[in-house]
């Protein structure tokens, strides 16, 4: 399809393991965003990319979280030494370019469960 | 510290009537406000936005009103349809820091 694709759709892992989440944005979209939705919480903005560059990483919850984007396309969000509080749905979105008023097209998310 | 708040976790409205979803914020420096709709097991979809220099924006059945003095915005859906049943997120954006802030969402149920 032509939408934002995220994989895996579900991930269950043991505490302490590393996980990698993948996002494939809409072709031609230069801006890419990562969000997290925890149970009972609103969407939490994590990080955005304009091209391959992430100008502001302050939204990442801890230094266990990192994200990269190569080739201006696919992005990966990596969580090292996972903790139970990392359990959430991780959503990726993309937009044509970085502009606050640009609509963001969301993927269906990765549901991460830390045992 | 929740900078964007949606104080009503749920709302039920009869089909054909008006749905009013409310959102309050604390930061007077927000530049844009956006509304997203989310169905279960799907990602949120953009609905409508408004710049901080405007007080109203309309798109079909959806209208967003912004009251800057009260730091309040609302989304009106009229007439409401059963397909509008979803969770609605209010979001705010600030150029300073380039960040989005989301409310916790309001679950709207439109009763046929």
What string gives the helices and strands of chain B in order? EEEEEEEEEEE
The quaternary structure here is heterodimer
Shape of chain A: globular
Task: Please count the beta strands of chain A (DSSP E, at least 2 residues each).
Answer: 10
How is this structure best described in words?
The complex is a heterodimer of chains A (115) and B (112). The relative contact order of chain A is 0.33. Chain A is mainly beta. The model of chain A has no long low-confidence stretch (mean pLDDT 88). Helices cover 0% and strands 46% of the residues of chain A. In chain A, the strands form 2 sheets. In chain A, strands 2, 4, 5, 8, 9 and 10 form a 6-stranded mixed sheet that branches. Chain A has strands at 5-7, 10-13, 19-24, 31-37, 43-50, 65-69, 75-79, 88-95, 105-106, 110-114. By secondary structure, chain B is mainly β. Helix content of chain B is 0%, strand content 56%. Chain B has strands at residues 4-5, 10-14, 19-25, 32-38, 45-51, 56-59, 62-67, 72-77, 86-94, 99-102, 106-111. In chain B, the strands form 2 sheets. In chain B, strands 2, 4, 5, 9, 10 and 11 form a 6-stranded mixed sheet that branches. In chain B, a hairpin with a 2-residue loop joins strand 6 and strand 7 (62-67). Chain B is globular, with a radius of gyration of 13 Å.
Helix/strand layout:
The complex is a heterodimer of chains A (about 120) and B (about 110).
Chain A: E1 5-7, E2 10-13, E3 19-24, E4 31-37, E5 43-50, E6 65-69, E7 75-79, E8 88-95, E9 105-106, E10 110-114
Parallel strand pairs in A: 2-10
Antiparallel strand pairs in A: 1-3, 3-7, 4-5, 4-8, 6-7, 8-9, 8-10
Chain B: E1 4-5, E2 10-14, E3 19-25, E4 32-38, E5 45-51, E6 56-59, E7 62-67, E8 72-77, E9 86-94, E10 99-102, E11 106-111
Parallel strand pairs in B: 2-11
Antiparallel strand pairs in B: 1-3, 3-8, 4-5, 4-9, 6-7, 7-8, 9-10, 9-11
């Amino acid at each position: 399809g032509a939408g934002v694709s995220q994989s895996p759709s579900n991930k269950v892992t043991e505490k302490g393991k590393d996980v990698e989440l993948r996002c494939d944005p809409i072709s031609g979209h230069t801006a890419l965003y990562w969000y997290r939705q925890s149970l009972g919480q609103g969407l939490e903005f994590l990080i955005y990319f304009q091209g391959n560059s992430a100008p502001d990483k302050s939204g990442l919850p801890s230094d266990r979280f990192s994200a990269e984007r190569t080739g201006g396309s696919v992005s990966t969000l990596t969580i090292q030494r996972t903790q139970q509080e990392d359990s959430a749905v991780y959503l990726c979105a993309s937009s044509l370019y970085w502009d606050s008023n640009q609509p963001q097209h969301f993927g269906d998310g990765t549901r991460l469960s830390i045992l | 510290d929740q900078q964007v708040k949606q104080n009503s976790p749920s709302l039920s409205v009869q089909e054909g009537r008006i749905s009013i979803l409310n959102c309050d914020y604390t930061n007077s420096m927000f530049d844009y406000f956006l509304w997203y709709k989310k169905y279960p097991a799907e990602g949120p979809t953009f609905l409508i936005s408004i710049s901080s220099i405007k007080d109203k924006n309309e798109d079909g059945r959806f209208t967003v009103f912004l009251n800057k003095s009260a730091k309040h915005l609302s989304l009106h859906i009229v007439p409401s349809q059963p397909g509008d049943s979803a969770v609605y997120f209010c979001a705010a954006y600030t150029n300073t820091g380039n960040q989005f802030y989301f409310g916790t969402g309001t679950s709207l149920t439109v009763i046929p």
